[in-house]
Amino acid sequence: MSKGTVQPRGVHRESLFSMAAHAIPIVAMFIMAVAAVESAQALQPKEPGESAEAKEAAEFYEFYTFYQSKWQIEKETEGKKETFTAECSGSAGGCNVYVGKGETSVWGYDPKTRQWTGTGQLDNGSRYVMAISRPPGPKFIPGMTFTFTGTIWHADGTINYVTNKSTCVDKNTIKEVTTGTDQAGKPIPKVTTTLRRIK
To answer: Which of 120, 109, 115, 197 minimizes the C-alpha distance to 160?
Structure first.
């Protein structure tokens, strides 16, 4: 062999095994760290604006803030008239809370049915659920009409199926006509209601 030739240095097998032994725990720790980060990210709740349902819920709530006020209410049932005041206020969770004569109800977006839904308790032990599919526009305007449908369960065991047709007269006035039937299909008394905003 000539003097200018350089012989390759040998690598001991023990050295290779030693390097691998040190590298494996480091790689494993790296993989575990990455998995932990991905898991944490998956568990984080989505921002409200990320889902179509959350956006729709916000739109429903914005529309129905129209009701957030004090109201003078005139109600007529079979010729009998009465006048009283009520108040609707907003609350956490994007809900409206209505408190009137003999009635307390909470209204909000139902993500299951994608409806604006109200659940109310009446002073005679009755309970109701009402709903509307969606706002008929971006905001209340004169002439706008929409319909609520629902069920009233009375303390005596009877059930009423009701429809409430509501018309926006102007920004301070709503007129409602409520009709329906009992569980036997017999019509129940019609109720006409006028809501006037108390400024």
So the answer is: 120
